[in-house]
Amino acid sequence: MAWNHWSSGQDIGRPFQGSVWFYSEYGYGSGATEISQCYGSLGGVQLNMCSACSVSPVVEVCRIETGDVNRYYRGLDNIFISKATKTNVDHSMHLEYLVATDDRLLPFLVNRSSATVRSLIFVVKTAKDQTDVGPTWVLTGCKCRNAELAGSTGEAWKVSADFSVASVIERSSTWGSRPTAGLRTTGDICMFNVGGSLTNPDANTFAYITNSFSCSINHNLQDLYTIGQRTKENVIESAYDITGTMDISLDGGGKYHFRDVLAAAAESTVSVFTSRTDGSPLLNLYNVRFNSSSIDVSPGNEGMMESAPWTAQAVSCTTLNHGVNHFDGAISTVVSAFV
Hints:
By secondary structure, this protein is mostly beta strands. It has one domain. 4% of the residues lie in helices and 38% in strands. It is built from 2 helices and 20 strands. Strands 1, 4, 5, 8, 9, 10, 11, 12, 13, 14, 17, 18, 19 and 20 form a 14-stranded antiparallel β-sheet that branches. The protein has a two-stranded antiparallel ribbon with strand order 2-3. The longest helix is centred in the last third of the chain and has 9 residues.
């Protein structure tokens, strides 16, 4: 079968015409919205997921991929490819966005419900005309493989996430409806230096200067295929891996951090505030240990810093509520380590 050449040049893909929103999915890969979760919650975040929710006021990257769908074989009698066959379809999506004070997606990327990663539906528009009609991609069975929350001096908090996707369906018109008022993410962008905070239960910081922080969450998904079926039959979750780094000043010539690392001391809870606004994402890390320390003594014009690697035993994501969480004094754990 020959390739299809449909374009006349008038419908060439153009920048700044894309949009993306999501639903909670009722059953992996079903394409049905999660009606039963309309009045539920996940990690303390109230949901209304039978309706569409936007991702962020600033989505920087949304990339849909097919994966390699061909296998090539060579025989011992030919320098060229002897045969080509179809193989499994491994759809995936990569998403990067700036965190807003009314973010709704991050808990789905971090938390598990009954030990499983929630399955989502993403609707992605890649082009549109003046009547908002254009190609619409419906992605079903979207489960987060891994996600990273990162912030640094002078920058916004940013989420990067990779998804395993069961199916990608192209439609000529919009599927479902766009997010309505109240489900559109319109809050302020969370800035690292404006409302960010990184503290332990005693409201102490980990160094005099913290230049950056990153947290990577890997759900270690395993895609399942069955005989006679090229597309994914299901996805199962394996162990949580929660790791990251923080760029900190080496106070006292590095002796304090060096001692903490050698003592293998663990912080029971580390709370990562993305903003001081109610409803903004709050990440709680449990039993956090620094993995190593490196004191670099060298000529230069900068203070002594280290990109300190750490590992956490568990993680949860909820939203900030000043009635429960406080910046001065003890920080209450508002959800359990596993949801």
